[in-house]
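Quiz preparation item.
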């Protein structure tokens, strides 16, 4: 679930960036000063250690319809904080002009990173200058739009179906990338040296984004269930079963994240088995929830009726 079901603190913005962020939001994405005339977006990430949201203005480049940002940090020898954040929490929020949307942040690797960076530096030579001044490889990060399918939402059942559809799609995406990862591993069986970079980081980011979103969605549901149970006492047994299924899915999520954390050392067949187990359990859970709760949730309008 990409929307937060409970109130979060305002994202942290460094003192230097405060006026830039304020001007961006006040003027539909247009800013002056050193950023005037440039392509600028706001990237909100979750801190790798703090867990707090941080908003950073970044230049962007579109290459082959992909929205790309570069971890240049002004040519510093250290990666910017936002890059460490997206490795820990791939789900981000992007503000582009007057539009705001959720995205999965996926760094490019190997030859693909080099090809994209060369094109970026051709269009914006300053990035090439930054790279020439440091031994650090400047990351190129694709911001892949991850909003749920834009459909009309009239009630709570519609909203949950939208989220369920997104989760199913993301898990299907992960399963496809697992098969690609296993095929790459099989093609290099017996070869000397580590496997070349490519699908590994992409799979990691998408899998973490799915796991993070699933955990967030179920956390939100756990907050909703007591209110629903009070309103509809006949659903008590159904909600107890859903809570138990949440615990099962949460355990599988933890096991999958542990495997993804060490892709190089993970047994390929176990990885496939764990992803298949997650797909089986989650699909059964979502089907049950839709069958048992949606008739009731369809009667709860969104947005809620205003008080008299």
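Solution:
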């Amino acid at each position: 679930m990409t929307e937060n079901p409970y109130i979060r603190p305002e994202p942290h913005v460094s003192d230097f960036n405060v006026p830039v962020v304020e001007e961006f939001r006040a003027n539909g994405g247009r800013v002056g000063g050193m950023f005037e005339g440039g392509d600028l977006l706001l990237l909100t990430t979750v801190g790798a250690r703090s867990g707090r949201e941080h908003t950073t203005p970044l230049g962007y480049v579109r290459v082959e319809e992909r929205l790309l940002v570069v971890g240049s940090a002004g040519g510093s020898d250290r990666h910017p904080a936002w890059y460490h954040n997206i490795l820990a929490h791939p789900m981000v929020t992007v503000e582009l002009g007057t539009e705001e949307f959720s995205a999965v942040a996926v760094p490019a690797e190997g030859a693909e990173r080099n090809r994209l960076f060369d094109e970026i530096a051709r269009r914006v030579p300053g990035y090439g200058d930054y790279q020439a001044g440091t031994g650090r490889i400047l990351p190129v990060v694709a911001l892949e739009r991850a909003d749920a399918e834009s459909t009309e939402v009239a009630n709570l059942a519609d909203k949950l179906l939208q989220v369920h559809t997104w989760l199913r799609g993301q898990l299907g995406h992960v399963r496809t990338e697992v098969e690609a990862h296993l095929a790459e591993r099989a093609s290099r069986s017996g070869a000397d040296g580590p496997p070349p970079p490519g699908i590994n980081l992409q799979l990691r980011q998408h899998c973490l984004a799915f796991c993070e979103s699933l955990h967030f969605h179920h956390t939100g549901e756990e907050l909703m269930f007591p209110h629903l149970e009070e309103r509809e006492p006949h659903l008590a047994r159904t909600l107890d079963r859903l809570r138990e299924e949440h615990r099962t899915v949460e355990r599988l999520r933890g096991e999958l994240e542990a495997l993804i954390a060490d892709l190089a050392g993970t047994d390929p067949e176990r990885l496939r088995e764990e992803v298949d187990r997650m797909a089986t359990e989650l699909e059964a859970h979502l089907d049950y929830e839709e069958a048992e709760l949606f008739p009731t949730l369809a009667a709860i309008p969104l947005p809620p009726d205003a008080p008299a």
